[in-house]
Amino acid sequence: MRYPRSSGILMHPTSLPGRFGVGDIGPGAHKFVEFLAASGQRWWQTLPLGPTGAGNSPYQSHSSFAGNPLLISPEAMVERGWLEEADLPEPVPATDHVDYMEVIRAKNALIARAFARSSPADVEFHRFVEREKHWLQDYALFMAIKEVRNGSAWFQWEPELVSRRPDALEAFAREAAEAVRFHEFVQYVFYEQWRALRETCARHDVKLIGDIPIFVAHDSADVWARPDLFFLDAEGRPTFVAGVPPDYFSETGQLWGNPLYDWAAHAAEGYAWWTQRIGALLKQVDLIRIDHFRGFEAYWEVPGGAETAVNGRWVPGPGPALFHALKGHFPDLPFIAEDLGVITPPVEALRDEFDLPGMRVLQFGFSPDPEAEKHLPYRHVVNSIAYTGTHDNDTSYGWISNPHVETTQSLEEIEEERLFALRFVGTDGQEFGWDLIRQAWGSVAQVAIAPMQDVLGLDSKARMNVPGRGEGNWGWRMLPGRPTPAEAARLADLTALYGRWNGPIPEGHDLHRKAGGPGLPPALTPESASGDVDADPGAA
């Protein structure tokens, strides 16, 4: 699918500033939409929005359908009448990192208080439960059981619950009816607040880009509810798990541990589970980035129980069959193909068969690897999304300046890349985030995206994720007062200059001609243009 020339910002809601220690989808998110609109941006890209487990990774969620309770806004619950202003704790001192342990405790307490004040007779709540029952019923029961079992994974529960024996599930649902309703309420609140945010986006003509991991977490309601769609043994443990072979980030590959799909079982159902999954996300966003797109052509299969991803093998994925099935429900196929990593001609052919835009990441373009050239601006194609970096990359300034780089490269290789990057861009690197934004915005790619950290010029301490590192990820937050008016104006100027402004430039703001530039040299000013071009401009 093709899109108008435009640009946007990658910013997960948890990274927004706010009063309660973590960003959410309340006032701070609505203010961020206003910033995007005022700077001419068309797109707001987020990471997956589901509830997270251990490690707080958005890519290891308890559900492909549910929303993350941490994103619920206490202020919005006050407006709804579920909380009173006096219920809200004192604002948490602003920091650039989320203390997830404290945030989870505080948010859960507030949501529990809101639930206690909610009305069981709320008509809209019951309509929501009925409308979303195809996933909500299993998810709410799953979460209720986890709480009673002290958070243990579903495959560690009693055999009758692991195997989903109907009488055992019914008995538990009766005994834990209030807990089940609580988790239904949490999702009701999330979806209501997200709907309000989408309405704000619509008023400002800002579109949302969501993110869907190709695989789902083993300890998820998805796998527990439909074990027949995955390669599991009789005890519910994966016989094969997902990962990638040794790469730029790790000499032993990346062992993700997600159970692999039984694609034959999915095909036998006409890929109905995938249709539901995609359809649910398209109720929340306008465009979907499909993480690890290459896994649909072939995926790296690692035996269950392996300690690294080294001893895996490539196995054919569903290929065109899945996308033909999806096209029957979503004719435009509003997807971005995350075509990074080991990309082969068959992967490119699958992407191109369905006219999906791929990703071009500028930071990858400076490698001496000939395959990396496609990431340089002069090799971009129109049907692509140009990124300065992604959530897995260092910030652009961090990438050019950090002496402690977590890759498999040698120091000499790193230095070579950096020197080439500085030479290519024509910069001393002091504002390398803005240097790459200019490169991306000037690209022929139909859409250009920059992580918010690059707009702010932040270093490696603001990095969102280091692939393969188990702790310390996903915590960066933007401080209050950012972006500054100067940063917002600079982004607006570049957006207009490179023809990416979302819609007509507002009247009175001829940004692409008047703002941001140093002006003409004296010999080329209109005043001097009518004179002798050979005259000495400094002569009396």
SSE inventory with pairings:
Layout: E1 6-10, H1 27-38, E2 43-45, H2 74-80, H3 100-117, H4 123-131, H5 133-148, H6 159-162, H7 166-175, H8 177-203, E3 207-212, H9 221-225, E4 240-244, E5 254-259, H10 263-268, H11 272-282, E6 287-290, E7 298-303, E8 313-316, H12 320-327, E9 335-337, H13 345-353, E10 358-361, E11 384-387, H14 396-401, H15 411-425, H16 432-442, E12 447-451, H17 452-456, H18 485-497, H19 511-514, H20 526-529
Parallel strand pairs: 1-2, 1-12, 2-3, 3-6, 6-9, 10-11, 11-12
Antiparallel strand pairs: 4-5, 4-7, 7-8
Helix pairs in contact: 4-5, 5-8
List keywords for this structure.
540 residues, alpha/beta, eight-stranded parallel β-sheet, four-stranded antiparallel β-sheet, 20 helices, 10% strand, disordered C terminus
Shape label: globular
N-C termini distance: 61 Å
Strand runs, count: 12
In DSSP terms (H or I, runs of 4 or more residues), the helix count works out at 20
Q: Rg from C-alpha positions? A: 25 Å
Structure characterization notes:
With 540 residues, the protein is an alpha/beta fold. It is 37% helix and 10% strand. The protein contains 20 helices and twelve strands. Helix 1 links the parallel strand 1 and strand 2. The longest helix has 27 residues. The termini are far apart.
Briefly summarize what is shown.
By secondary structure, this protein is α/β, with parallel strands linked by helices. 37% of the residues lie in helices and 10% in strands.
